[in-house]
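Hi all, long-time lurker, first post. I run a small reading group and we've been trying to get comfortable going from sequence to structure in the token notation. Rather than ask abstract questions, I figured I'd post a concrete chain and ask someone more experienced to write out its structure so we can walk through it together at our next meeting. Sequence below, copied exactly:
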Amino acid sequence: MKNTSYSSAHIANYFLWRAWREEVQITPMKLIKLVYIAYGWNLVINQNKLFNEKILAWDYGPVIPSIFHEFKRFGKDPITKGNYATDGDCHSETGELLSVPIVSGDDNEVLKVLNAEWEIYKFKDGLELSKITHEEGSAWSIAYKQGAGKNSVLSDDDIKKRSSEAINRLIKKSKAPK
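-- Answer (accepted) --
Happy to help. Here is the structure in token form:
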């Protein structure tokens, strides 16, 4: 499976940028779930990892720890404009952010995944997205309930399987008569 050069910060910043541009509220929980779902969708659609960080099973679903720690100061409140995710590229003395990690505008494969997911889930809140990631048989459910509990690593195979099922349900739903 091909790996990518993105970090979870790149993906988080895409969703933050879209939210701020479209004036859609985005809380830390919503952001974490969007990044997680994007990871799964990319495993299915582009057949590769979106980033190389571990996704852990926590009480409230799958979590990317770096994103959680970056935005936990917002609690349940929306993340305010200009607060981007970082990937450690800061000035060694001042701590000032040197660059904002972003997805390349030329990366059509990844952007198609992120754009499609955003259009489907942008108006869902963090709790709604959390329910989706908590469903019985989900990668989180397997790792948390059937596995080692909190802090167990979600398997890419389980994430991919569940994401494939979710994508197929969305396709079927979109083709259903209205």
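A couple of things your group might point at:
The chain has a mean pLDDT of 90.
Residues 156-175 form the longest helix (20 residues).
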